[in-house]
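Loading example: each entry is read as two labelled lines plus one structure line.
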Amino acid sequence: MGLTLGSGAVIVLSENVDLKQTLSDLGHFFAHESCGKCYPCQLGSQRQAEILDRNLAGSVLEGDFARLEDVGWTMTDASLCGLGQTAASAVLSAMEHFPETFGVEK
Amino acid sequence: MSETITLTIDGNEVQASSNATIQQVLETINKPAPLICAHDATTPEGLCRQCVVEVEGWRVLAPSCVTKVNEGMVIHTASERVLRSRRTILEMLNASVDLSESPELQSQMDEFGADCERFPEAKTREQDVKDDNPFFVRDYEKCLMCWRCVQACGDDIQYTYAISVGGRGFESKISTFFDGPLPETTCVFCGNCVAVCPTNALKNKTEFFMEQGMDYDAIRIEKRKEKKQMGGKK
């Protein structure tokens, strides 16, 4: 399932939840938790939160979906520790399974 | 004790010492990975992740500056994942920091096809120049957070420990103790931090004054005045 082990790693959400809001909250959580040592997470968690905020506000820019993908995979592949490597997990899986959340046709 | 091992890099078999890092081996075959934070005078910390390469069977990419080679390792130095990470790191950096005086970073942007307008409406590290001593200024909106200055000030060169990393995440920054002015710290103005800075965030005062159009005599008078002021303070 591509899940990691750890406390709070599994969060059950009802189907009534506002995914845009949840993702934006997650984005801020990771931007806040990033220690700032390695570049992918230090910069990526900030860029990811900015794009997720735009998505929540309904003011996405052209290319935001591809931008979010590049930021997410760069954090996942290149970050130094587990925080950065999983900071985009929920976002990338939402992009795969619920692309309509980002205004993209499934 | 080191032994000779064999690994595969981009399809070619390469012999190397088992003590070597991936980057050291890449240098022997004339294919060094691009670097941002590393410098010959400072200890590699694996911060920038620009030197990452793909190792078959590994979940994440490996920073070649700090990863040791292993027998039978299969490495790809220019896979899609590697190139995406390198390009995106440069694009995110360029959106946050003023790279206008970093020719090395500019040429990496060209090499990896990084778009300098990739992240519009991004928060930047824009801030005022810190000018608090007669020797150099600190223009931290140009700072990459490579940590070289901190390392040069500390265990790698000077053992003075006047500066360190403060804050967290995107807000992390190079700072003095309680962010106080440099003359009030343990700084001895050796200039090693200025020498290892890759972006001109740390800039010699003479250069700084010349850019503002001051001539040699005016600079000499200004610097003498500043030194006298600092002498009184310290």
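Residues 133 and 183 of chain B are 7 Å apart (CA to CA).
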